[in-house]
Structure formats: structure tokens, C-alpha cells
Amino acid sequence: MSKRRWSKFWWQDYERDPALRLCSLAAQGLWMRLLCLMHEGEPYGHLCVNHRPLHSRQLALMLGVAERQIARLMAELRDAGVFSTTPEGCIYSRRLLRDKAVSDQGAAWGRTGGNPSLKAASQTPASSPPSTQPTGVGEGLSPPHKHQEAEAESEADCTLTAFGPNDDVRLHLFKHGLSFLQKATGRPERSTRALLGKWLKMLHDDAACLLAVLAECAAFNPAEPVSWIEAKVRARVAELVQPIAHPASTSPHAQRLAAWQNVPDMEGV
User: Fold this and answer.
1) Reported pTM
2) Where do the domains of the chain lie, and which CATH numbers do they carry?
3) How far apart, in whole angstroms, are the C-alpha atoms of residue 122 and residue 135?
4) What is the pLDDT of residues 41-82, one digit of tens each?
5) Torsion angle of alpha carbons 111, 114, 117, 120, nearest 10°?
6) b/e map 120-132, b = 16+ CB within 10 Å
7) Among 93, 161, 176, 216, which has the highest number of CB atoms less than 10 A from its own CB?
């Protein structure tokens, strides 16, 4: 059983998750129950008991529903990309793992006196006059969280669309866009580069369009940024696809048919 008796739950992020909103109400309710089980799971955030993955039959016994219904709803959640699976087939929540990593990092910083970057920024030279501004209570004791309280600051610091007419949009994308995607998803650079390359290919190498989608993601701050951006990119691709008007056939047979249609109907001839 997990040692974490409680955890922060961001209701707005849950409501904004586009992948989950595509699922039925029954699947959404099942996902909430699975989150409770994964919170108690070991390792944390994984749908398992005693390091053993839970399958449909075991979930049906624990939740008191038919195994066929569990299998159908789990398939719906899987197709929507709500959860991920390990190579061993164990289901886990990406958000729970990210929150745990942030919490563990904060605990580690707390044992050493706070966030090193914040402590270094708060130190002033000996020659400078003392500051008259009051010091915030608990400053430097917790790591920065990218949650609703810091949305205004993150939007002010966002440089995803700050490129001029003389700048290379593609270079801007793989510099600031890549950095944003790494922070938003917690994935390594190699994985985020592959995602950018995939989306750029879907948009026919339109870096400005992809950069605009990333800017929308930074402002919207969804719970699952990869699924959200994927849906937005597909929507942009659908907008770009226009029906092609085929010219009228000019074959000899079509010309003869058109000529016969122009002949008046003369009775008695």
C-alpha cells in the first residue's frame, strides 16, 4: 500500500483532459476508480497489487461489475489514449507519475534547505545595501510548480510566438517549442524531438502552424499535453484538406454525348 494518504487533485485539469472527455460517462467513472487504485498501487501510479498487474477479471471482482463491461470500458480508455502501459503490460497514469516526481524533488530540496536555484537568487552581495522589502514566508522551501497558481507567470514567460519576420521559424520551433514540450510532458529531448518531427510532417512542414498550436497549449495548460496537441494538429490538417474540383471529362465519347444532348427533339423525323 502506498505511503501517500492524500495527494493534490487539480479539478480543472481533469475537466480539460481532451482524451478523457472523448470517452463515455461510464468510462470516465471507471477511470476515477482506477486512479484511486493506482494511488494505492505499488509502485505508485501503476494499476497493480504487490507489483503484479491487475487484469480485467480481477478488476471486475474488485469493482463489482461484469468482466465483459470492464473489458469494453478499458478498451475505450485505451483507444482514447487516457492511460499508458509498461513493456510488461502494466497500466499506469502519466499524471500521477509526474506529480510524484515533483513531490519527491520538493522533499529532497526541503532536506537540503530548499531549491538551490531559488537560494542562489535570494543571496545578495555583502557590499549591496540591505533590502527594505519584506521577505516572503517560506521562500525557497518548495520547488516551482506548473499549476493554476503559476499560469499567469508561465504565460508571461512563454516565447513560443515571439519571432520576427527575419527569424527562422523552424529554428525557433526546435529551440523554444522543444523546451516547452519537455517541461510540459516531462519527456526526454529525444522523445520530444520525435513528437515535433511527427507533427511537423503531418502539417506538411508548416513550422509556424505547429508553433501556434504549442502556444495555444501553453495558454490552455491541458492535463495531457501530448493528446491535446495531437488532436489540435489533426484538426488543423483536416482544415487544410480541401476537396479538389475535377475538370469535366474531355474524352471523345463525352464530347459525342454532349453533342447529342444539344440536338433538338424533332417529332416525326
Assistant:
1) 0.40
2) 11-96 (1.10.10), 150-238 (no CATH)
3) 10
4) 888 889 988 888 888 898 999 889 999 999 999 999 999 889
5) -110
6) eeeeeeeeeeeee
7) 93
